[in-house]
Amino acid sequence: MQSDTLSVLRRSRLFSAVSAADAAALLEDHRILELADGAVVFAEDSLAEFLFLVLDGEIAIDPCATSPQLRLCAGDTAGEEAVLTGTPHGATARASGPVTLLALPAGTLMAYLETHFEVAIAMISAMAGHLREQVREITELKMQSTAERLASYLLALAGEATGRAVVRLPFEKRHLADHLGMDPATLSRAFAKLRDKGVVASRTDKVEIADVAELRIYGDCAAFTA
């Protein structure tokens, strides 16, 4: 388990500049948390005591009540902006389904960075890049109608497929609604609006797209990352 955790840590963009030996040392005080769906990972305005790395499952972060959720999956980190700046968390993060997290004490990480300036700079650069991606994603989502948001998301799942395609939603529809910044009823209406474009959603996680090219009129796959 330790070797697997070390491997995931080193693959993380935030820790890419950390040597294998230093990464192993950082893990000496880590914790593994297994949380149920809806459990709070950290709360807005709370003290940043840990930096979290998602090992399995997903967590959702609510930037504010009116914005789409940000979803983080295996290999992503959460809480780094608060840890690295010494400020309280700016949003609340919750488990989106069962999730396994690595919790790295903030004190351990900051003590290491005090003597490894080049790694600190690399982490800040990685954090800034991630923030730009998140801002872009939220901005693009808010500029689209609900049907366009859904179309863009489905196209991202379809990838390079052409013609007819069948995609599977990676999480429950209620979580998809949160992710796209809408309530479940609005999501249902968005699916209904896309029916005349050949989109048929099953009662499970399967969605059929009759013609990917036609659906691209309503959403740009390149503008959204699933």
Please supply descriptive tags for the structure shown above.
226 residues; alpha+beta; Jelly Rolls; 2 domains; four-stranded antiparallel β-sheet; disordered C terminus; cAMP-binding protein-catabolite gene activator and regulatory subunit of cAMP-dependent protein kinase; transcription; WH_DNA-bd_sf; HTH_CRP
Please characterize this protein's 3D structure.
With 226 residues, this protein is of the alpha+beta class. The chain has 2 domains: 2-142, Sandwich (Jelly Rolls); 145-223, Arc Repressor Mutant, subunit A, CATH 1.10.10.10. Helix content is 41%, strand content 20%. The protein has 9 helices and 11 strands. It has helices at residues 2-11, 20-26, 80-85, 106-114, 117-143, 146-158, 173-179, 184-193, 212-215; strands spanning 31-35, 40-42, 50-56, 59-62, 70-72, 77-78, 92-95, 99-105, 165-168, 199-201, 206-209. Strands 1-8-3-6 form a 4-stranded antiparallel β-sheet. It has a 4-stranded antiparallel β-sheet with strand order 2-7-4-5, with no helix packed on it. A hairpin with a 4-residue loop joins β10 (199-201) and β11. α6 (146-158) packs across α8 (184-193). It is elongated. The two termini are 28 Å apart. Mean pLDDT is 83; it is low at 221-226. Residues 14-104 form the Cyclic nucleotide-binding domain. Pfam families: cNMP_binding, HTH_Crp_2. Residues 144-213 form the HTH crp-type domain.
